[in-house]
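haha ok so turns out i had the wrong file open the whole time. this is the CORRECT one, sorry everyone. sequence first:
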Amino acid sequence: MAEVILMPKLSDTMTEGVVAEWHKKVGDTVSSGELLAEIETDKATMEFESFYDGVLLHIGIEKGATAPVNDVLAIIGEKGEDIQGLLADAKKSNAVAEEAPKQEEVLKEEKEAAPVQAATPAPAPKPAPQPVAQTATDARIFASPLAKKLAEEKGIDVGLVRGTGENGRIVKRDVENYVPYERPAGGNSFTAAPAGTESYRDENVSQMRKVIAKRLAESKFTAPHFYLTLEIDMDNAIAARKAMNAQEGVKVSFNDMVVKAVAMSLRKHPTVNSAWMGDFIRRNDHVHIGVAVAVEDGLLVPVVRFADTKGLAQIGAEVKEFAQKAKDKKLQPQDWEGNTFTISNLGMYGIEEFTAIINPPDSCILAVGGIKQVPVVKNGQVVPGNIMKVTLSCDHRVVDGASGSEFLNTFKSYLENPVMMLV
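then structure:
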């Protein structure tokens, strides 16, 4: 009997996926455990294996196409088997699943409106939504296999190449004749246009960028943020790092020291290591630190688990490995799930101070700026000093000003006296 394979939910935030590659075509024999397709989620491109033995009878989502979770991805069964009934049932099930939340919302609205229904006039019916015109940017990229291979070899984003083949298809000569966009110093790439001519280009929104936009907008407009900024004297941290890195095989960064100091501070201030869960607050006994990593399409937050129990060298090795895996799109769900606190560090970009949006379900995120040499007063004298500014974004539903301030001062004490992190 034929088996229906649905678009899998490969991460906690995934609502839709893109088929990056099919490794089988209709009519091919498939074995259980064999690689079937590659699915692009909001965070990584992941290999998807078949759970069944048989013949690939149907592909429901073509390469490059986007589809919601639980849409029909493929059907595997016996050669020549009739699958029309299965397809019809699957479409019917999806329609019912989509309609259920709408019905619940209608009932909720009616229930909320009931007490005031007699006292207020019935609202005017909402106008029917206007159809949205589909643009060329909504379509998949059409390119010959040879053009794609050549673009990959040359390190060219095939989506930026203008196609001259039939129906705008990108062919070999288009890649060979491609002229990269000019990149001015300090700016984004753009296409040079003649003086006095307006020009722009539209880009498809990646799955990662869609989820970033959705989750951070929800966080910003549902969690009441407030911000606490503190200056930290980094002279002792600089000296300690220099001494540690003088040892053979040791490479500790300031970010590693920040992660360790945060983890130890959370042990003393569990309120900051909490999460707002709607009708209750979750107090986490474990410390999992999310470390924001910039990648081409946006931002990923791999998690250093039980960071309070790990040494600086181990934290540094994990963060370095996560950063490389993130850039290669090889992070797995267990790499990015379960954070209880998040750190965003832009110091390496020369940013002195900034605020960050809380990464749900955390109640706080620490924004770390760069170390700057400035005049400071020590023992009544003005001397050169190294100062780093950090800003804690807090969800006021969980963390109050006093508890956030106490956490920051403990964090400050660890970085200003690094030996405390070694005992």
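The longest strand covers residues 364-378.
again sry for the mixup
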